[in-house]
Input
Amino acid sequence: MELLQLKYFCVAARYQNFTKAAEYFSIPQSSISKTIANLERELGCKLFDRAGRHVYLNETGKVFLEKAEVALRNLEDGVVRIQELSSNAKKNIRLAVWEGSKLLPDILTAFGKVDRTVSFSLVQHSNENMLQDFDLCISALPLNDNGLDFTPLITEEILLALPVDHPLAGRDSIELPLLKDESFIGLTSGKSLRRITDAYCNMHGFLPKIIFESDDPATVRGLIENGLGVAFIPEKTWKSAHTGKIKYLRIKGGGCRRTIAISWHKGRHLPESARKFKQFVIDWYGRL
Output
């Protein structure tokens, strides 16, 4: 069994798609298929169920995935520990940012004034439910992976943002049921903020009527400013400087809020540079 077989298998298993796995590694799809077929032949069992052009991780594959990921993490940890014992300590941090991306430039700029020797590999637009290939991750709670430890960074209220000429713009706050007929601008399905706000609206007897979907906060704000709809905006991590074109209303009743956290893999050794950056981020958010 080869290391490359395990790497190909783990990525294909997370995506449950050989084509996407091939794109991840920038190799032909046939290479993924051949490598996994050889792995299955070596193990003497199928790891995926095939249905036409689709593949699905079966129960045997799920068991093997759990063990294979542990093995790969242990090997990677061994490399990091050896590097830290030598003069080649890791200085690159793989940072996934699912939430709070608007604040990221300020965080990295401030950290650069403290330590200029660290570089970053940023992951911001992948599906947060897919690959977990990071040292640290900034995301909303709850986490979708029991294999992660985390420290909460901030809990923020979620506001309603609407154009200043909207009929409701004269208010300072609003009852959620009054929004059931409004046209909403929302994040794409599956994003944590979308899940939180959909669930909160559902508690009040409706689901938002989404007319535009985007995964970019700047686009959402631009659509609001142009009068194309209303949106839920996290108060601290999304709300931009006042432009005079958007009115923010508090939602009566409370409870519409979210918590941002920084997380890392349980049992995986964090390089010194990542530990230093983790504490820097915790302190930085604490000053907001």
Q: What stands out?
A: The mean pLDDT is 87. The CA atoms of residues 37 and 46 lie 8 Å apart. The longest helix spans residues 59-85.
